[in-house]
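Record 1 of the preview.
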Amino acid sequence: MTIIIENISKSFSTRQVLSKVTLTVNRGEIVTIMGENGCGKTTLFNIVAGLLEPDEGSVSINGQNPREVFPSIVFQDYRESLFPWLTVRQNIEFAYTKSVKSGKRPPFETEGLIEALGIKDLADRYPHELSGGEAQLVGIARALAFGSEVVLLDEPSSSLSFDMEQRFHEVLLKYREKMQATVLLISHDPREAVHISNKVVVLSKNPARVIRCLDIKPGYYNEFLNELIRLLRWRCQ
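->
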């Protein structure tokens, strides 16, 4: 599925957060959005998810309103999105069951996701018994168990240790390949952005505009990483 964002603008009260943001995420691409805290990344994310309406412009996913597509979502406040009365396995199984009932067949079943993400020992625990990183992995697993061809991830690695992040990246790349999924990701880590993305989009300060879109070419990791770091440093001056 292709996400088309056209001239999106959004204000809250007298503060303009987004100004004419335009971006296309093609089917099968992973596109990472970067920018300073508070610049409007999550606002854009929520508009693409169908949770907010833009003041101007439009978002379509394969020509449809985002609310008709039901993307798989990992929210920034990932712990709040877990069902506290369900165990880890039950949280993931809930999404997987909903996916199968709707006719979707995600590439990983519940047990496969638990194994791949390294959370097998946590399967019978409840969310309040988990660390931040563990809860974040459960949020990721539940989103992927839902099985959408559109995946929206708001800072999905913010609480992950290095080994957790590597497992997450491996699973996400396999999911993208098997589902030909379109992935929009928010990150503050240029290494993560360059490592797993086809494109990296850098937003300006408020009101956020697209100031650079880097097409990441395989085999040039260090070159693109250095260019992205220079760009991010220049923006902060």
